[in-house]
Amino acid sequence: MTYAFAPAGADALPLHVIDASGLEDWLASVPEATRAWVTASGFSGGIGEALMIPGAEGQPVAALAGFGTAATRRRARFVLAAALPKLAAGTYEVASGLPPEHAEVEALGWLFAGYAFTRYAGEAPSARNLVAPEGVDAARVEALARSEALTRDLVNTPASDMGPQELEEAARALAGTFEAQIEVISGEALETGFPMIHTVGRASTRAPRLIDMRWGSSGPTLTLVGKGVCFDTGGLNIKPGSSMGLMKKDMGGAANVLGLAQAIMELKLPLQLRVLIPAVENSIAGDSFRPQDILTSRKGLTVEINNTDAEGRLVLADALALADEERPDLIVSMATLTGAARVAVGPDLAPFYTDDEPLAAALAQAGTAAADPLWRMPLWPAYESMIEPGIADLDNAPKGGFAGSITAALFLNRFVTDSPRYAHFDIYSWQPSAAPGRTAGGLGQGPRAILGALPGVLGL
């Protein structure tokens, strides 16, 4: 799949986007035969409705797509994509009815709807191509669609084919495409320089590593850090089977930062990009790390292990410490970190943390504009004592079960002390059931919002 718009001037059917509240006015403007066909078909302009309009010889000459009402659109995302499955295969060009302020998001949703994960079975959906709507930056939207496809593919691939080595290979392929530099730290250098990454991954037969990719030579500096736990058994605090079933997606943070990096590089943003991915598998063996072990991090902070299933913050902490040493203008970490975040906001929202008010406002505004919904969560200072066990500097799994996503974010915050701006995203990276523009399975959450916020935040 190319995730590209049909060329302008293609032999395309006109597509009329119909706001339900304006259907009567539209019907009054069309020939009587068309009006009779639409009325007899029961088309009302609701979200998810579509109708092919036949010509005199029965062949389609146009199509309608329901756009709902302002009230129903508040509860929907990618409205045109909801109508797309009911349209015949072919090429379409928006002829009327699509508000300019909705055009980019709706065009993106259309491209997203063409995604299918077919590596092991199945086939791509029938092609329904779209000419880029007027005023839409087609190259930008296509880049966003391709970056999302990369993220989804990485998350959807099972751990048998997406371990630390394969994640490294994906990063190397991306670096090769855009002439980025890449370094991978493993073995003794990892054990010495990044002891918590090594400790979490040492029990696996697939060696842990830290992937470090750089692109760009001028402009402000941005470092993305993504959790790359390719499978999480929970370690010695083993997960029950019901909780282990989706753990192939525990590298969703890595998949999201790689997708975001692809978009940044493809769009040639004038910045210096660094991507750090601690890639591990949290397994069980004779050399697994244990509850009540105390680890010394790269930053020198000691961490008491009270649950080996809270491993993501450990590997992120070492990577964040490295990122912080360079004092970039902005650090962003992304991770499928806590079940507490899902309890708080469900699967559809990406909670994020920052104590930088302008950065928070920019992210929230960009998320709304890009149909990439976010929800800011508090770095609540009163909970700092919950991550301080007394026997060590930090506790990786505070007792009590309260505020689990907040305490995880506070934990990570301790490893970013020198850089001016930092945001952490505790994402789900998974679509539980199919929705317009979103097949069930792996999902990008946050990258479009981050991308949209970068020009203002970094002064691009």
UniProtKB/TrEMBL annotation:
SUPFAM superfamilies with a match to the protein in the record: Zn-dependent exopeptidases
PROSITE patterns assigned: CYTOSOL_AP
GO MF term list: manganese ion binding; metalloaminopeptidase activity
Keywords: Aminopeptidase, Hydrolase, Manganese, Protease
Source organism, top-level taxon: Bacteria
EC main group: hydrolase
Family annotation (Gene3D superfamilies): Leucine Aminopeptidase, subunit E, domain 1, Zn peptidases
GO cellular component terms, semicolon-separated: cytoplasm
Pfam families reported in the protein's UniProt record: Peptidase_M17, Peptidase_M17_N_1
InterPro entries: Leucine_aapep/pepB (IPR011356), Macro_dom-like (IPR043472), Peptidase_M17_C (IPR000819), Peptidase_M17_N_1 (IPR048816)
Record domain Cytosol aminopeptidase: where: 307-314
E.C. number: 3.4.11.23
GO BP annotations listed: proteolysis
Family, as annotated: Belongs to the peptidase M17 family.
Protein name: Peptidase B
Source organism (scientific name): Salipiger mucosus DSM 16094
